[in-house]
Amino acid sequence: MKKMAIFGMGLCVVLAFSSCKSSESAYKKAYEKAKQQELAEPQVSEPVEVTPVVSAPVEAKVVESVPVATAGVRQEKVEVVSGAGSLKDYSVVCGSFGVKANAENLKNFLDGEGYNAVVVFNPEAAMYRVVVSTYADRASAAEARDAFKARYSTRKDFQGAWLLYRLK
C-alpha cells in the first residue's frame, strides 16, 4: 500500500513539472503581437480643427463677508490650557494637535528656544493649538509669523504657521 501511495505522489510530481510550459506567458505573447500590429499599421493623423475662444468681459464683484482686519486669518473660540499669560486678539499658531501631550511637547521645545508658548484648546474642532506669540493688532502678528517662519526655514512643519483671531 505504501508503495502505491509513493508511486502516486511521484506520478503527480512528474505530471506537475511536465505540464509547465515555457516561462513566456500568454499575456506577453499577446502584448508582443499587438505591438507588432501597431507598428505595422501606418499612423495617419487627421488635421485638428481649432476654434478661437472669445472671452466675455468680466465684472468685478465686491464681497464683504469678512472684515478687512481679519481677512486671511482663522477665527476660532479658544481657551488657554497651559502656559503663562493670556491671549490678545491675534496669535501666531505654529502647531495643531488632537492630542494634548503632543502640543505640550512642542510648547516645551519652543520655551527652550526662548519663546513663551501657550497651548490653547478649540472645543469645536477638538484641537490643541500651540501659540508662539500673541498681539493686539494683525500687522504685528503677521510680522511675527513671517519672522518665525524665517528663523525656522529648514523646518517644514513650522512653515505652515498661521494667524488666529480669537473670538470672545
Structural notes for this entry:
It is a single chain. By secondary structure, the protein is α+β, with helices and mostly antiparallel strands. 35% of the residues lie in helices and 20% in strands. The chain is built from four helices and six strands, in the order H-H-E-E-E-H-E-E-H-E. The chain has helices at residues 2-18, 26-40, 100-112, 138-151, and strands at 74-76, 79-82, 90-97, 118-122, 127-135, 162-166. The protein has a six-stranded mixed beta sheet with strand order 1-6-3-5-4-2. The longest helix is centred in the first third of the chain and has 17 residues, at 2-18. The radius of gyration is 34 Å and the shape is flat. It starts with a helix and ends with a strand.
Topology:
Layout: H1 2-18, H2 26-40, E1 74-76, E2 79-82, E3 90-97, H3 100-112, E4 118-122, E5 127-135, H4 138-151, E6 162-166
Parallel strand pairs: 1-6
Antiparallel strand pairs: 2-4, 3-5, 3-6, 4-5
- Terminal CA distance reads 90 Å
Report low-confidence residues grouped into runs of 5 or more: 63-68
For the largest beta-sheet, the strand count, sense and barrel status come to: 6 strands, mixed
The strand order across the widest sheet is 1-6-3-5-4-2
The fourth-level CATH homologous superfamily of the domain at 69-166 is: Sporulation related repeat
**What overall form do the CA principal axes indicate?**
flat
What is the CATH fold-level name of the domain at 69-166?
Answer: Alpha-Beta Plaits
Report helical residue fraction: 25-40%
Count helical runs. Answer: 4
Helix and strand composition category:
alpha+beta
What does the average pLDDT come to? 82
> How big is the Rg?
34 Å
Order of helices and strands: HHEEEHEEHE
Relative strand content: 15-25%
Q: Would you identify the CATH architecture of the domain at 69-166?
A: 2-Layer Sandwich
Number of beta strands: 6
CATH class of the domain at 69-166 equals Alpha Beta
